[in-house]
Structures are given as C-alpha cells and as structure tokens.
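To whoever picks this up:

The nightly regression suite flagged Alkylhydroperoxidase as changed. Nothing in the input moved, so I suspect the structure step. Input below, exactly as stored in the fixture:
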Amino acid sequence: MSMGTKDFAAITGSISQGIGGLRSAGAAETVNQFNAMSKAALEDGALDKKTKELIALSIGVAKQCDGCIGFHTKALKRLGATDGEVAEALGMTVYMGGGPALMYAGDAWNAWQALKD
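Regenerated output under the current build:
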C-alpha cells in the first residue's frame, strides 16, 4: 500500500466492529431494521443487484463516505463487477458531482483495486 492510500479493508472492519458495539449497547433494533431495509433495497427487480451496488458506490463517492466506498466495492467484487463497469459508474459520479466527486472517485478506484482480488 502506498503512502497516503486509505486502507478500506481496515475502515470497513472498524465500522463493522462499531456497528456491533451499537447493536449490543441497545441499538439492536435500529441496526436490524437498517439491515432489513438494505436487504429489501438490494433485491433483484427492474435493476439487478450489481447495478444497484454501482449506484450505491456512486452515492457513497458523492457523499464522501469512506465506509460506503469500502462496503460497496466489496459487494461489487462478490457480484462480479468489472473494471469497466466500476470505472463508468465512477465517471458518471464525477460528471454529476464535479471536483469533490473526482477526489472521492479516485479513492473509490483505489478501494476497488485493493478489495477486488
């Protein structure tokens, strides 16, 4: 890993640990309901799961959410996304979000490269 590169595996691991702590500290129902909403939103429908995850990655970039980038790049790996699909989704994000989106699209590409293998 080069200097300054974010460790998205560590970021997502830390967030998962924190969410586990929230669950055991009394927010279990909230976490469970969020997980249920996520599952429902990702069900295949008019859009397949991979397309929905590409959208989620783009929104994560636009909202500058490192955890979102990490979790959605992992999901895209599991769903068999290609470099081209991820690059085009990130390109659309930059088009719609300007300079700040470009900065986070760079981070998302680094996450994709680090987590896809």
